[in-house]
């Protein structure tokens, strides 16, 4: 199980099984998600939130459990960000992740996202070379990854590719300017962008070009609040900020950062809403100790029983056939478990 999957299991409540009486639901046995009653978020929803000046929420998700958690929390947009290369797969940077990796994770997130609008990053190398490659990979992400929109990190030089994807192929596009992690090396590392007047002017030019090319929203990352405010007020489309201050149309954070699950560093702009990493280490440590102490699993609590008559016949059989005297078992035949047997991991 990945770190992100573990986060999701922490956040998720047990899902009731539909049409199976009292049978319990758990991770090894698929269940039908309950209807949460929230209308599906679409681009029209996003545009209405923007028009009504209602803050737009976006959160990253990398697998089914984290997607369900975001969806149930009422997040407007779920982003399968290429940050999963670092926070979920342990790579040193985001450039190492592939199209196949992103499609794999996007499909998992799509299965858990019933209401939130799903956006998936095109990874480094998937759109830089030419328009045909960019369009083909965007189509793959929609068809195979089940995304509803794609996001790419690029300034005005990528405008023709955005136009080809958004207007030529009809695929919704979210832009991303400021600190662009895919090309952080060219920017001198993970540094705040737009701190000089000239670089701030360049960000404004990039934003306007991306809007003109067909983006329906733009992520603004790691830039001074005043620059993000100016960009936001100059555009006719929503801006989603991450380390860009409160004046943007909405906000996005990396889930692993905001719940304390990424152990390498926490960005300055990230607020900690939980500290699940240490809690998970503690929980696994307690499990480890319980197994070694013989207190888990406990007979009668975490075990399945045979019907009394079958248990008696089984004890007789193994005693006569193999000379084994079995332990007391789960209640020595006094309880018949109706719990389903989980699939093997």
Defining traits:
single chain, 345 residues, alpha/beta, eight-stranded parallel barrel, 8 strands, disordered N terminus
Indicate the low-confidence ranges by residue numbers.
1-30, 332-338
Tell me the quaternary state: single chain
> Which range does the strand content fall in?
5-15%
Provide the residue-averaged pLDDT.
Answer: 85
Major sheet, described briefly? Answer: 8 strands, parallel, barrel
- Roughly how much helix do the residues carry, as a percent range? 25-40%
Strand order of the largest sheet: 1-2-3-4-5-6-7-8
Number of helices, counting only DSSP H or I runs of 4 residues or more: 12
- Give helix and strand order, one letter per element, not per position: HHEHEHHEHEHEHEHEEHHH
Shape: elongated
- Span of the ends, CA to CA: 10 Å
Number of strands: 8
Q: Over all CA atoms, what is the radius of gyration?
A: 25 Å
Structural class: alpha/beta
Q: Would you mind describing this structure in some detail?
A:
- 39% of the residues lie in helices and 11% in strands.
- It contains twelve helices and eight strands.
- The protein has helices at 3-11, 43-51, 64-73, 84-87, 99-112, 131-143, 159-168, 197-213, 225-234, 255-258, 276-293, 308-322, and strands at 56-60, 77-80, 117-121, 149-153, 173-178, 217-221, 239-242, 250-253.
- It has an eight-stranded parallel barrel, surrounded by seven helices.
- Strand 3 (117-121), helix 6 and strand 4 (149-153) form a beta-alpha-beta unit.
- Helix 3 (64-73) crosses helix 5 (99-112), helix 6 packs across helix 7 and helix 7 (159-168) runs parallel beside helix 8.
- The model is unreliable at 1-30 and 332-338 (pLDDT under 50).
């Amino acid at each position: 199980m990945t770190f992100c999957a573990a986060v999701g299991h922490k956040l998720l409540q047990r899902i009731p099984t539909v049409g199976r009486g009292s049978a319990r639901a758990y991770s090894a046995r698929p269940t039908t998600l309950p209807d949460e009653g929230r209308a599906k978020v679409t681009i029209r929803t996003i545009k209405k939130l923007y028009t009504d000046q209602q803050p737009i929420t976006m959160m990253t998700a990398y697998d089914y459990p984290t997607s369900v958690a975001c969806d149930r929390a009422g997040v407007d947009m779920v982003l399968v960000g290429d940050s999963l290369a670092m926070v979920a797969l342990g790579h040193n940077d985001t450039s190492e992740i592939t199209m196949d990796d992103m499609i794999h994770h996007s499909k998992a997130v799509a299965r858990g996202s019933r209401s939130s609008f799903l956006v998936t990053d095109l990874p480094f190398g998937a759109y830089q070379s030419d328009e045909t490659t960019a369009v083909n990979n965007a189509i793959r992400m929609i068809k195979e990854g089940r995304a509803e929109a794609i996001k790419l990190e690029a300034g005005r030089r990528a405008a023709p590719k955005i136009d080809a994807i958004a207007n030529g192929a009809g695929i919704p596009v979210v832009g991303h300017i400021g600190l662009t992690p895919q090309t952080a090396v060219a920017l001198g590392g993970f540094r705040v962008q737009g701190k000089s007047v000239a670089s701030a002017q360049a960000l404004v030019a990039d934003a306007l070009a991306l809007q003109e090319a067909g983006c329906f929203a733009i992520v603004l990352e790691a830039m001074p609040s005043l620059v993000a405010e100016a960009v936001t007020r100059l555009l006719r489309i929503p801006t989603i900020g991450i380390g860009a201050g409160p004046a943007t149309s909405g906000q996005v954070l990396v889930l692993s950062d905001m719940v304390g699950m990424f152990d390498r560093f926490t960005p300055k702009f990230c607020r900690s809403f939980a500290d699940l990493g240490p809690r998970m280490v503690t929980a696994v440590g307690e499990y480890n100790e319980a197994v070694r102490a013989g207190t888990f699993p406990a007979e009668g609590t975490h075990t399945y029983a045979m019907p009394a008559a079958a248990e008696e016949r089984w004890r007789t059989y193994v005693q006569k056939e193999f000379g084994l005297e079995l332990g007391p078992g789960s209640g020595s035949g006094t309880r018949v478990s109706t719990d389903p047997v989980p699939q093997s991991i």
